[in-house]
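Ticket #4471: structure output looks truncated?

Reporter: J.K.
Steps to reproduce: submitted the chain below (234 residues) through the standard prediction queue, then opened the result file.
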Amino acid sequence: MKDILGTALLDYLHGNYSEDIVTETSISEPDVLPLPYLFRSFEKMPKMEQLALHRCEGNVLDVGCGAGSHSLYLQGKGVDVMAIDASAGAVAVARERGVRQVLHSTFLDLSGVKFDTILLLMNGTGIFETVAQVPQYLEQLHSLLSENGSVLIDSSDLRYMYDETHDGGIWVPADRYYGELEFTMEYKGQTTAHFPWLYLDQRLLAELCEENGFNFEILYESDHYEYLAKLTLK
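Returned output as attached by the reporter:
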């Protein structure tokens, strides 16, 4: 897949910012992802992200670090943090911005190390891709988490994107879970292939965690179906 995210982040960092990333999903119109937002300071982060960063303890794994904003904040507080991203460009940007431990890696490829906190923010359930793959990712989280550690992960319930039924339910697709989306990203005339991205409602994520060896706790809920959860080993 084209490294559109990494290319855009590198452009912004090096003063070549002229446009933003445009995202589109299988259930929504094109939307703009402003590049400055990916370089935001702690003060400009949503309350949910700030809470997650305050909850980090011990050595931390920042999954999908992007431009490294979360890692830089933690590093500035004296936290031992390792950042990873599947985008080579993002890794280069995070390193150039000053993240000391940053690795070009997918989450499933990481092994041989334990963390006290694993951080998955900006719809952290997205990397699971589909509901069917969640157990595989939970197994990987289990292998990387220290005995008394915690996973801090956020997501959204996309029920607000669907029409309501007369009895208060929602009309959902018959062939898939309603939070399973297909995404594309476009930047400066280049477009990625479609890729899967998963939004999990908190009820389903809680069930999957319980079935796969994790305790589940909600730390924060927004007014717009977003939530932050804490997972710990049973």
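Triage note (M.O.): checked the attachment and the full token line is present. The mean pLDDT is 95.
Status: closed, working as intended.
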